[in-house]
């Protein structure tokens, strides 16, 4: 059963349409898919629930899936990243939308559950909240569920942890692990969008500052690269010795957070873990230090410990919460410690999300086509999907590449002779 949309302000639809129309111009892969789907309708009659950061690029993904014939219910995956104008525009287009900006925890859960009320056969998740609710509160929906796709690093980590304990009861495609996702979205998308958000929110210079990046996965690599490009001195904090060594050989300083705390001007957490920056770290930071989180959940910076240190807290600028310590130093937290590139910005560039969402669409189709054989668990994106998206992107950029001749293929696959 589809409930009426739950949005903040339907009058914002025109603004939302304008934003969506802008990104559509810069998403040629999804445009091509949409043109094909209008004719072929590969998702005809399928019910699909999406929980993903609700902004313009995501809205176009939802519209493309609807053009394929799916009945789509859309909700957010983070209360701070939902844009009310986008929600209004999607509802105006006839999609079922359950989300608004700055939803309370109770409202956020209500929105997720409302989106699940359509009884989805397929899901697209971002962070794992839909998967959690399907296993805990809406187990009645499992019987009709084929499976789904997970967008982000944190969500895949949660899926693998659940699967390791044999507690994942349906198949999920690990979209985050696709080459055309993590190599480009996580690295270049995160690197740019994090700094877009920080610069927009603070209006401060980066050059000459020390930026501490916690985590050197693909997202952390991107943040460190863009920090360096903006003229910052970059410190990387890691728990993985191989990644720490890579960061050192990439030219960054590597040290513990305890060592870095007094050196940094800007701290950016990108780990997927919790309590990466603790109260003791905040206690030794410079006056005016900026704290930003680029991980999915608002647990990487220990906000309760920061609050316990503070003798005063207030909004010092839009989307910046200042915490004054007893000696007069201020520590500044951006976007409530939530995902800064979406909580204080518009997220990744459209050209990047065009690739990631193309993989999402193809992963959903793969799940549907292979629903009889895919077992519960976390499944890799087939290489042919990556190659298809990469070839589409190259073509959209007007680029051509070489192909192997039959003789070269035989040479590479053989072992008898290398003459």
TrEMBL record:
Protein's organism: Anoxynatronum buryatiense
Annotated residues for binding of substrate: 126, 151, 181, 185
Top-level taxonomic group: Bacteria
Chief place where the protein resides: cytoplasm
Spans traversing the lipid bilayer: none
Gene3D superfamilies, A to Z: Adenosylhomocysteinase-like, NAD(P)-binding Rossmann-like Domain
Function per UniProt: May play a key role in the regulation of the intracellular concentration of adenosylhomocysteine.
Protein location: Cytoplasm
NCBIfam families from the UniProt entry: ahcY, PRK05476.2-3
Residue sites binding NAD(+) per the record: 152-154, 186, 215-222, 238, 294-296, 341, 348
SUPFAM superfamilies, sorted: Formate/glycerate dehydrogenase catalytic domain-like, NAD(P)-binding Rossmann-fold domains
GO MF annotations in UniProt: adenosylhomocysteinase activity
Cofactor notes: Binds 1 NAD(+) per subunit.
Cofactor: NAD(+)
Name this protein carries in UniProt: Adenosylhomocysteinase
Gene Ontology biological process terms from the UniProt entry: L-homocysteine biosynthetic process; one-carbon metabolic process; S-adenosylmethionine cycle
Stored Pfam families: AdoHcyase, AdoHcyase_NAD
InterPro entries, per database record: Adenosylhomocyst_ase-like_sf, Adenosylhomocysteinase-like, Ado_hCys_hydrolase_NAD-bd, NAD(P)-bd_dom_sf, S-Ado-L-homoCys_hydrolase_CS
Pathway assigned to this chain's UniProt record: Amino-acid biosynthesis; L-homocysteine biosynthesis; L-homocysteine from S-adenosyl-L-homocysteine: step 1/1
Enzyme class: hydrolase
A GO cellular component entry from the record: cytosol
Catalytic activity: S-adenosyl-L-homocysteine + H2O = L-homocysteine + adenosine
Sorted UniProt keywords: Cytoplasm, Hydrolase, NAD, One-carbon metabolism
EC number: 3.13.2.1
NAD is among the record's keywords: yes
